[in-house]
Amino acid sequence: MNERLLAKMENEQSEFLAALIEANPIEALSMSKRYHVQEAIIHALRIEPISEKQALALLKCSRPLSSVYRHWERMKHRQQIMFLSTLEEYANHIIQLRELCRKKEGGDDE
Questions:
Q1: Closest Cα partner for 38 from 80, 60, 71, 2?
Q2: Which residues lie below 8 Å from residue 38, measured CB to CB, with a gap of 6+?
Q3: Helix (H, G, I), strand (E, B) or coil at 110
Q4: Structure confidence by residue, pLDDT tens digits, 45-88
Q5: Helix/strand/coil (H, E, C) string of 31-88?
Q6: In whole angstroms, what is the distance from residue 55 CA to residue 36 CA?
């Protein structure tokens, strides 16, 4: 089932790419985010297949890739939270590294 779903999604993405290529520059810019997110969806399915039941449910959609993308659009605030969390974690990592460097430079007398 996953192979059939992947083929259907890849076909849908090829059609979207053809429309993207034909679009004027302004439209192409607005369409490019969708293209890249849809590529990520396809890539995720290649790496981690979903259950047969899930694949069958999506295969019943006329345009499963577009449907999943629209669902992602409604959920993208979660992605923004993930980005914020990543920023905070990395900033904390830098702070910890700088504190370690200061301790080493000042000696271990503390």
A1: 71
A2: 9, 13, 16, 65, 69
A3: coil
A4: 999 999 999 999 999 999 999 999 999 888 877 777 787 888 89
A5: HHHHHHHHHHHHHHHHHCCCCHHHHHHHHCCCCHHHHHHHHHHHHHHHHHHHHHHHHH
A6: 21
> Which residue reads 């992605």 in tokens?
79
3: which DSSP letter? Answer: H
19: its two tokens: 């429309």
Joined together, the tokens standing for residue 2 give: 């996953």
Give residue 107's region: left, alpha or beta (phi > 0; psi -120 to 50). Answer: left
- Give the domain ranges of the chain: 2-106
